[in-house]
Here is the input.
Amino acid sequence: MNILVYIETFEGTVRRSALELLSYANDLKTLKKGIITALTGPEADDGTISCLARYGADKILVLKGAGKYYSNLSLKAESIRQAALNEGSEIVLFTGNVAGRSLAPLVAAKLKAGMVPGIYSLPKNLEPFTINKKVFSGKAIATVTVHTPAKVLILLPNSFALKENPVPEVKEDLDPGITEPATTTFTGIRILDTVRTNDQIRLTEAGIVVSGGRGLKSRENWRYVEELAGLLGGATACSRPAYDEGWCPHDGYVGQTGKVISPNVYLALGISGAVQHLAGISSSRLIVAINKDPDAPIFKSADYGIIGDIQEVMPRLIEAVKNYRSAPGSTP
Ligand SMILES: Cc1cc2nc3c(=O)[nH]c(=O)nc-3n(C[C@H](O)[C@H](O)[C@H](O)COP(=O)(O)OP(=O)(O)OC[C@H]3O[C@@H](n4cnc5c(N)ncnc54)[C@H](O)[C@@H]3O)c2cc1C
Here is the structure.
């Protein structure tokens, strides 16, 4: 079963989510033998190539064409279609972030492939291809069967552990030779520029997320969220009221109408746990809630809870983390 993995890079580094795709592809390969091909962009350097080979990419295709295929979604999708056909890929993998969710349907349409988003596990069966997906913001599981020869799967970020699986480096250039926009599926979307909004760890890929809600009461208290996230090496996030108040930028807003994240640890400070908020965080491996109301709904979803006032709990918690960090022999 040949597998094509779409590799997203950012500022010269391979995104963690792309390495998760490769780890998943290697697990798929244990079910049925095949070649894993990683398709990456023109900025791929030697470091990118060796990283991809370390995570088990049998072949690395580097898309040539002066970046033009990477600034136009339709051309990029056409390049991926060509790569999938050339490599005889039965499965094409994308990650469930904005880039992956924009590209995957275009590629699926071009390949006449069945597409399944929300993947968090290996297929239950290969013939017919049957797989579980998360639906209703992770509240339920649907089992779907895909009957098309080609399949496009979108994996939930942070659902798969990274596994190195070193193979020899095999690199090839791919020039799709497309000169005009592929008008049949042209979406009208062109990426003109990419601007970094902050220097923080990317929210959708963060292992630890510290999130604040209305219970923080003021912009000044947002410092608790930032300080704890900084100490723990995590990203910051927020509920809708905290975003509405301007305490946190929009790219930190999580929930049904915000980002959907699945970190290892989600700390909710002064967040009630409304169903729309939980829709974005319920796939977190561990939820820790701090709330002064013992009946706050968040405690039903939390693995650990602290009932108390943010103003009292946070300075003590931050102090405790600092002490732990400075203790001899503490783990980073
Ligand atoms: C269509 C729709 C879509 C929505 N989408 C989203 C979404 O994507 N994301 C989202 O977050 N919301 C969304 N909402 C809003 C959602 O319904 C809730 O209103 C929101 O999540 C509540 O945010 P909160 O928990 O910060 O505030 P609140 O519900 O007001 O909760 C504040 C919590 O802080 C606690 N608290 C107060 N003071 C303290 C203190 N001193 N110490 C400790 N705890 C304290 C309170 O006990 C309370 O539990 C949506 C709503 C609608 C209608």
User: Anything to note?
Assistant: The CA atoms of residues 70 and 76 lie 6 Å apart. Residues 3-185 form a domain with the Rossmann fold fold (CATH 3.40.50.620). The chain has a mean pLDDT of 90. The pocket of flavin-adenine dinucleotide is lined by residues 213-215, 239-242, 255-258, 270-272, 274, 276-277, 280, 291-293, 296, 309-311 (CB under 6 Å).
